[in-house]
């Protein structure tokens, strides 16, 4: 691990004043410290933000506001989260391990790096780590990599289960910097790799995530998250689906669908949502709609199975909702 300066401010203004181009904010540290130990990330300054006043879960007419420093395990069992947005609670409980969820923050989870084993190995080329060195996953071990949103520069999948659920729910993030505050839809927060895979989101240097806003959606209490992985704990998704549906009289009135494990960022599927509207809430309708999920997919030598797997994962998630026979 490289040497670095350390600071532990107690106010947001102090934290922002300390931030610079090569600084890193530390919350739970479950990703940052891991990558620093491997010398994948080498910040000059680490700013511990755990004393900042950006905690709490507030419910109002607009929905829920969740502080970025709330721990994942606490949010997963919060009454309002479980009753209003079960898809969030389920996505959190499917993430990492219990020990990590006790440490990891909500904001930190959304900011974890889109990564693969080649990114973590400083002896391998990686366009995300060092531009122009190449992407060995394209012709190498790519079973766990993305099939949606990829480029010739990067095919790594976005790892967050939470982000998939929040994208399905049209959540926003509140960002704070020295210049002020802005609110960004989470679906617009993440960027595609293109030719610059090291740029994963729209954060500017020194900008801090302070809150997550989940807008009120009455029928989001009928929601679910399904994650398919090689083992039941501490494993990234091969495919996952976050779904919510307004089902009246056996017919889908509205739906929200997003998937993970298959995209370079959390992947919202408006075409699947449109195909579900007005259709019977049954396996046949779900299967037909799910076929649209893989439009534009670019499978590699070892991950073509994900094209079928993600469709089946969507159907499985939808079949688990209330009102489906």
Please describe what this structure looks like.
Among the domains are: 1-51, Uridine Diphospho-n-acetylenolpyruvylglucosamine Reductase, domain 2 (2-Layer Sandwich); 220-319, 2-Layer Sandwich (Enolase-like, domain 1), CATH 3.30.390.50. It has 13 helices and 12 strands. It has helices at residues 12-18, 32-37, 72-76, 79-84, 86-93, 98-103, 106-110, 117-120, 161-168, 186-189, 270-276, 283-290, 305-319, and strands at residues 5-7, 23-26, 45-48, 57-60, 63-67, 172-177, 180-185, 208-215, 223-228, 239-248, 251-260, 267-268. The strands form 3 sheets. The chain has a 5-stranded antiparallel β-sheet with strand order 4-5-8-6-7. Helix 5 (86-93) packs antiparallel against helix 9 (161-168) and helix 12 (283-290) packs antiparallel against helix 13 (305-319). This is Xanthine dehydrogenase YagS FAD-binding subunit. InterPro entries: CO_DH_flav_C, CO_DH_flav_C_dom_sf, Diverse_Substr_Oxidored, FAD-bd_PCMH, FAD-bd_PCMH-like_sf, FAD-bd_PCMH_sub1, FAD-bd_PCMH_sub2, Mopterin_DH_FAD-bd. Keywords: Oxidoreductase. GO terms for molecular function: FAD binding; oxidoreductase activity.
Would you summarize the structure shown here?
The protein is an alpha+beta fold and 325 residues long.
Please estimate the helix content.
25-40%
CATH superfamily of the domain at 220-319: CO dehydrogenase flavoprotein, C-terminal domain
Distance between the termini: 55 Å
Contiguous runs where pLDDT drops below 50 for at least 5 residues: none
CATH class of the domain at 220-319: Alpha Beta
What value does the Rg take, in angstroms? 19 Å
CATH topology of the domain at 220-319: Enolase-like, domain 1
Question: For the report, how would you describe the main beta sheet?
Answer: 5 strands, antiparallel
Number of strands: 12
Structural class: alpha+beta
- What order do the strands of the largest sheet run in, or round the barrel if closed? 4-5-8-6-7
By CATH, the architecture of the domain at 220-319 is named 2-Layer Sandwich
Shape descriptor: globular
Mean pLDDT: 96
Strand content: 15-25%
Work out the helix count.
13
Topology as a string of helices (H) and strands (E): EHEHEEEHHHHHHHEEHEEEEEHHH
């Amino acid at each position: 691990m490289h040497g670095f300066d350390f600071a532990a401010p107690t106010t947001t203004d102090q934290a922002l004043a300390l931030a610079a181009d090569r600084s890193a904010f530390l919350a739970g540290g479950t990703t940052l410290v891991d990558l620093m130990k491997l010398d994948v990330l080498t910040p000059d300054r680490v700013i511990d933000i755990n004393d900042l006043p950006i905690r709490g879960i507030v419910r109002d007419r607009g929905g829920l506001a969740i502080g970025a420093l709330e721990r994942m395990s606490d949010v997963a069992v919060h009454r309002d989260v479980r009753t209003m947005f079960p898809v969030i609670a389920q996505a959190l409980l499917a993430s990492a391990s219990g020990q990590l969820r006790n440490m990891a923050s909500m904001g930190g989870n959304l900011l974890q790096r889109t990564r693969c084993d080649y990114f973590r190995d400083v002896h391998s080329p990686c366009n995300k780590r060092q531009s122009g060195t190449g992407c060995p996953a394209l012709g190498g071990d790519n079973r766990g990599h993305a099939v949606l949103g990829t480029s010739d520069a990067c095919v790594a999948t976005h790892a967050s289960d939470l982000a998939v659920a929040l994208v399905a729910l049209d959540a926003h993030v509140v960002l704070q910097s020295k210049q002020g505050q802005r609110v960004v839809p989470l679906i617009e927060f993440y960027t595609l790799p293109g030719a610059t895979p090291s740029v994963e989101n729209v954060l500017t240097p020194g900008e801090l995530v302070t809150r997550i806003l989940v807008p009120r959606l009455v029928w989001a209490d009928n929601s679910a998250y399904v994650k398919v992985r090689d083992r039941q704990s501490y494993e990234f998704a091969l495919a996952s689906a976050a779904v919510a549906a307004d089902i009246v009289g056996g017919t889908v009135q509205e739906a929200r669908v997003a998937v993970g494990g298959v995209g370079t960022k959390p992947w919202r599927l408006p075409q699947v949502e449109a195909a579900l509207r007005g259709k019977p809430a049954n396996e046949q309708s779900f299967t037909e709609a799910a076929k649209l999920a893989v439009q534009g997919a670019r499978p590699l030598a070892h991950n073509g199975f994900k094209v079928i797997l993600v469709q089946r994962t969507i159907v499985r998630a939808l079949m688990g909702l209330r009102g489906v026979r």
